[in-house]
């Protein structure tokens, strides 16, 4: 009996220790400036969404908001999160094509100018989601030039890593302090806000891809898959370093990449089969991203 009792105590100690460690990891990566009792939902609080086209979600639903050139849809993940939480106020400032610079400076679009996205963040703001960085790195612009007639080719990797210098990795490193500076500005404008950095979902599958449906050679598929992983790791690290939470959308998005069936995929291919922009999340993907954000909000947060 004594032996069993000791073993039970050991299990309890281990469980409590693991829970405490998990709680610490979340606290370390969350907004410690958010005081107890400040909530977003149930008719209270102000939720502001900031981000690029993966946040705005062009063509997945009915276009909403101004300017029209931002191509925000009414079923993007911010709208889905807002519908679930039901805050007193909700502002979606996201805009297709946005970079970190457009969070503090106006963005001209093909149809109107979007004000600096941070203008939507006020002292009353209690929740901010931020999905940004991909356009700073230039992922979509680069991907559009990688089409090849050869299944195993890697024209983009060969060009972007010539001379032993990885241009994509360098761009990711250069974007890190820009993301960190934005998070600091959000804290300064909204000291009561919880901030969640939203990562990018899984776009490319493990393995060689699905050439010619996705006309990118195996070498470039591997190169861009690894680079997107580095981008998400950078975003997670910046969230951790600047008192924000991180919504991992890549892990739940595995098995829902551009090469999967139309009733499974979260991200459309070069020629979308569902309503979405090429190489962007469809409505199913936006729901998956919303679920990731809502999951983070359920974790302990001081």
Essential attributes:
alpha/beta; two-stranded antiparallel sheet; 302 residues
Task: Give a structural overview.
- The protein has helices at 2-28, 53-56, 77-85, 134-137, 139-143, 155-160, 167-189, 218-241, 250-253, 283-297; strands spanning 46-51, 89-92, 107-109, 112-114, 127-131, 194-198, 245-247.
- The chain is an alpha/beta fold and 302 residues long.
- The protein has a single domain, classed as SGNH hydrolase (Rossmann fold, 3-Layer(aba) Sandwich).
- The longest helix is centred in the N-terminal third of the chain and has 27 residues, at 2-28.
- The two termini are 41 Å apart.
- The model is unreliable at 1-37 (pLDDT under 50).
Question: What is the gist of this entry?
Answer:
The protein is α/β, with parallel strands linked by helices. The chain has helices at 2-28, 53-56, 77-85, 134-137, 139-143, 155-160, 167-189, 218-241, 250-253, 283-297; strands at 46-51, 89-92, 107-109, 112-114, 127-131, 194-198, 245-247.
